[in-house]
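sry for the spam today, last one i promise. struct tokens for design, 152 residues
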């Protein structure tokens, strides 16, 4: 199975890790996970502090530490909310509650083009100790750490 996932991965946190784990679980042992990492103009409204190359490096290190070999995944830059999902042939897309609407929009475009829709697999937010979602913004604001521990 060919599974895709996309994001900024600004600060790699437990929410990202859960999405990635679900992607590999969905792809299966012989499947491939395609990871789109935001780059360029799409980041203008985001508080990105980690350069693209470092975000990719962090992802690769995490995946290697989890035992995923490079033949199981591909990391590519994406420049808009669609990435390669409109043109490429994927089976499923892994999303958070925050990005579900994007996946639905992707499927509408795919159907208009005569392509099969992607199976949308929604992973719930990972909550911090304070029961609010873990996010890079909250981590950068020093409210929580990458594991969701409250710092303030």
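last one done:
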């Amino acid at each position: 199975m060919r599974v895709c996932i996309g994001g900024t991965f600004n600060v790699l946190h437990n929410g990202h890790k859960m999405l990635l784990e679900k992607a590999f679980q969905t792809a299966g042992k012989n499947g491939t996970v395609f990871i789109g990492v935001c780059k360029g103009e799409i980041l203008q409204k985001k508080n990105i502090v980690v350069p693209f190359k470092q975000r990719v490096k962090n992802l690769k290190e995490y995946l290697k530490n989890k035992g995923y070999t490079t033949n199981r995944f591909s990391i590519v830059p994406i420049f808009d909310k669609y990435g390669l999902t409109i043109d490429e042939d994927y089976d499923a897309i892994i999303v958070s509650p925050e990005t579900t609407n994007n996946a639905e929009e992707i499927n509408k475009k795919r159907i208009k083009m005569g392509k099969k829709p992607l199976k949308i697999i929604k992973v719930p937010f990972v909550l911090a100790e304070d029961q609010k979602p873990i996010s890079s913004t909250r981590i950068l604001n020093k409210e929580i750490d990458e594991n969701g521990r409250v710092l303030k």
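The beta strands are 2-7, 32-38, 73-78, 92-95, 119-122. ok im logging off now
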